[in-house]
Amino acid sequence: MTVLAGLEDRARVLRQVPAGRRVEGTPMLAEVTGPTFACRLAVRSTAEEVGAAPGDQRVVTRGRVTTGPGVDVRPSDRVEVTVGREQLVYEVTTAPEPLRVTGRIVGLAFDVVRVG
Q1: pLDDT tens across 44-65, in order?
Q2: Radius of gyration of the chain (CA)
């Protein structure tokens, strides 16, 4: 069984790119959707985090995405993962790490945190 045999989910990169002129020194950004690729989302933990205001709590879901080589993912990107019929949006929190088998790069893995 290879490392990539279990890639059952689908994902695509959502990237913010400059679009148009600056307004009051702030660049206008547009979200660009990348091509769909096979991946595997492994949810690591779901925990409650306390916000700055009293009584402000939210549930945070962290995970790890494994995919084949050649996918362009950056820590500033978001990833839309389709698991079954459900579409989930995650923020990428780490740079992709290469997965190696006998010295060859066979895939990439990166950590994510759920948005919303």
Answers
A1: 877 666 555 666 666 778 899 9
A2: 16
DSSP-based three-state secondary structure for 52: coil
Domain segments of the chain: what residues?
A: 3-114
Q: What would the CATH number be for the domain defined by 3-114? A: 2.40.10.270
| pLDDT, the chain, mean | 84
* Spatial distance between the Cα atoms of 77 and 4, rounded to a whole number of angstroms: 22
Contact 25, 57 (CB under 8 A): no
Distance CA 59, CA 47 (A): 6
Q: Give the type of residue at 24.
A: E
65-84 burial string, b = 16+ CB within 10 Å, else e?
bbbbeebebeeebbbbbeee
For residue range 18-34, list pLDDT tens digits in order.
887 777 777 788 888 99
What per-residue confidence (pLDDT) applies to 1? Answer: 44
Strand stretches in the chain, DSSP E: 9-23, 26-50, 57-67, 78-83, 86-92, 97-101, 104-114
